[in-house]
Design goal:
Helix content of chain B: over 70%
Number of helices of chain A: 22
Shape of chain A: globular
Largest sheet of chain B: none
Radius of gyration of chain A: 24 Å
CATH topology of the largest domain in chain A: Growth Hormone, Chain: A
Helix content of chain A: over 70%
Largest sheet of chain A: 4 strands, antiparallel
Structural class of chain B: mainly alpha
Distance between the termini of chain A: 12 Å
Oligomer: heterodimer
CATH superfamily of the largest domain in chain A: MFS general substrate transporter like domains
Number of domains of chain A: 2
Strand order of the largest sheet of chain A: 1-2-3-4
Distance between the termini of chain B: 23 Å
Strand content of chain B: under 5%
Shape of chain B: elongated
Number of strands of chain A: 4
Strand content of chain A: 5-15%
Order of helices and strands of chain B: HH
Chain lengths: 516, 79
């Protein structure tokens, strides 16, 4: 069926596929969005950095395992069909997410806690690896040829909307557990963080019901009735040079760069605001929420546009704009969150207390911290922390100066709006590289091995290159400490190589026929 | 254009080993700087994951050099 009989059919297909994919992304993101809270619950608290890195590593593990999910479920999808395969991935994802919400903390069951979380996180990654290729293939195989980019772009919006919903649910839960905000946040950090995980099971049940009512993809059903289904999709996809070369081209010329642009725009930017610029938890999330809200329609705009002018240059121009402007945009984030140039309302300065903590790996040396709430004339409110290192060695004590840092920054309205605007630009780049890519990948491969062939480059590009972006970027900033923007070099280099390969080797032709 | 594709194939073939060398060198330096389990696991994961991808880049370069991308398939009978 190349031309659907009614437009109603395609919208039902899009709705059923998108809702499931949206839930899978929601499930996947709540873990990442709660990384710092989860670190406190499941990893030893002796070293906060190690705990955070461990969580990020677990986060990365969820991404790294995605290509394996692509192989396992891609093969199944090409053997038994699209419909039942992505039903299975949905059940696996929903079950793992719900179970994460049930795991007791490290304080209760010791190392079994992080191990269980890691295992469930791996299952999530595996399920996600199987989901996307199925949904994109399913929609593309129902869509008319001249609107394939437009219809598949609705699936593309789910990845961003999943983040939007996860952030919304987290913020809402964080504020609803007690009448006053402070107690509510305390309860959220203690046990309330589990609610977004439990909420997933309701969404999954609804989605399973919807998907059970769907029919198999008409192209796959036709292949099956003709006995032309692939016997060994893995061998056909990666064992034959003619298909392998297209898999490699899809990875190095498109998905690799698309992955890093996506994860820099949506995830590293959020992490940068929170851990480098020290913007307040709620504000750093609402900034992303506003930016996503304004930018999401552009997935459909660029997807639809790609039907008219081709997929290649929309994706590559998005990539080029991103790698050329990242340094400038992230520099703006730094400038807009600095206290320099602000005028303090000194009469409103309020002490929030002081404490002394031992330095890691030391039994005698400690840090004395004094914290104030500082109000500025423009409406911004920062926490000012003065750090004095108390050395027992008088020689070291003599040369140590008081360090002043600012954190939990509540930005003034003008700075907040400017950051939302820059964040919108970052996500606009995401819509350019990501909007047309489902149609692009579907058109590269034949029906009988499409699920397997498109899933692997997609998940290596997004799961490995993209998923590791926040982790590698953070790591780079710990190696090159003097340059706060050093984390961006990973994205810029990978994006530049991908842009070059894509520009030289990829064709801009829109395949009129995906029935073959 | 096809000549450019071919000669760039050599660049991709060389970029693969360079990436592997840089990755292992950085991993070794970072592990020796801070030889704790966390660091070892992080860098081991990077090395294990990125080496096969770098080999993929070498194969991509080889195909490009052999002219496999001079003309891309236009329908599934060519795949």
């Amino acid at each position: 069926m190349t031309q659907p009989s009614q437009s109603k059919t395609i919208w039902q297909v899009i709705a059923a596929s998108s809702v499931g994919t949206l839930i899978e992304w929601y499930d996947f993101y709540i873990f990442g969005s709660l990384a710092t809270v989860i670190a406190e619950q499941f990893f030893p608290k002796t070293n906060p950095t190690a705990a955070l890195l461990s969580t990020l590593a677990t986060f990365a593990a969820g991404f790294i395992v995605r290509p394996f999910g692509a192989l396992v479920f891609g093969r199944l999808g090409d053997l038994i069909g699209r419909k039942y395969t992505f039903l299975l991935t949905l059940i696996l994802m929903g079950g793992s997410t719900f179970a994460i919400g049930l795991v007791p903390g490290y304080a209760t069951i010791g190392f079994a806690a992080p191990l269980l979380v890691l295992l469930l996180r791996l299952l999530q990654g595996l399920a996600l690896g199987g989901e996307y290729g199925g949904a994109a293939t399913y929609v593309a195989e129902h869509a008319p040829p001249h609107r394939r980019g437009y219809y598949t772009s609705w699936i593309q919006t789910t990845a961003t909307l999943g983040l939007f919903i996860s952030l919304g649910v987290i913020l809402l839960t964080r504020r609803s557990l007690a009448p006053d905000l402070e107690t509510s946040i305390q309860r959220f950090n203690d046990w309330g963080w589990r609610i977004p995980f439990w909420a997933s099971i309701l969404l999954v049940i609804v989605s399973i019901y919807i998907r059970l009512r769907m029919n198999e993809s008409p192209l796959f059903a036709k292949l099956k009735s003709e006995g032309k289904v692939s016997v060994n999709p893995l061998k056909e996809s990666f064992g034959h040079k003619t298909n392998l070369k297209m898999v490699l081209l899809a990875l190095f010329g498109a998905t690799m760069g698309q992955g890093v642009v996506w994860y820099t725009g949506q995830f590293y930017a959020q992490s940068f605001l929170e851990t480098v610029c020290h913007v307040d938890f709620d504000q750093s999330r609402t900034i992303i929420i506003w930016a996503i809200l304004f930018a999401t329609p552009f997935f459909v705009v660029f997807g639809g546009w790609s039907d008219k002018i081709g997929r290649k240059w929309i994706m590559l121009i998005g990539m080029l704009l991103a790698i050329c402007s990242y340094q400038y945009i992230f520099k703006q984030f730094l400038n807009l969150t600095q206290p320099a140039g602000k005028t303090e309302l000194t009469e409103q300065r309020r002490s929030l207390g002081e404490k002394t903590i031992l330095l890691p790996k030391s039994k005698t040396d400690s840090i004395h911290l004094r914290t104030w709430e500082v109000h500025y004339t423009d409406g911004a409110v920062f926490h000012e922390v003065k750090q004095d290192t108390l050395w027992t060695d008088p020689a070291r004590a003599a040369i140590t100066k008081t360090a002043t840092v600012y954190n939990e920054k509540k930005l003034d309205t003008a700075a907040y709006r400017k950051i939302v605007m820059w964040m919108f630009v970052l996500i606009l780049y995401v819509t350019m590289v990501y909007g047309p890519i489902a149609a692009f990948l579907v058109e590269l491969f034949p029906t009988r091995i499409r699920y397997t062939s498109m899933s692997l480059p997609y998940h290596i590009g997004n799961g490995v290159f993209g998923g590791l972006t926040p982790f590698i970027a953070t790591l780079l900033t710990t190696i090159y400490v003097s340059d706060k923007l050093s984390g961006l070099w990973y994205t810029i280099i990978i994006g530049a190589v991908c842009f070059f390969i894509g520009a030289v080797y990829i064709s801009n032709r829109v395949d009129p026929d995906v029935n073959d | 254009m096809n000549q450019l594709k071919k000669w760039l194939g050599i660049v991709w073939m060389l970029l693969g080993p360079v990436a592997i060398y840089y990755l292992i060198k950085t991993a070794a330096a970072e592990i020796s700087k801070n030889p704790v389990t966390n660091t070892i696991i992080q860098w081991a994961v990077f090395v294990i994951i990125f080496i096969p991808i770098a080999i993929g880049l070498i194969i991509f370069g080889y195909y490009a050099f052999k002219g496999e991308y001079d003309r891309l398939p236009e329908n599934s009978t060519e795949i």
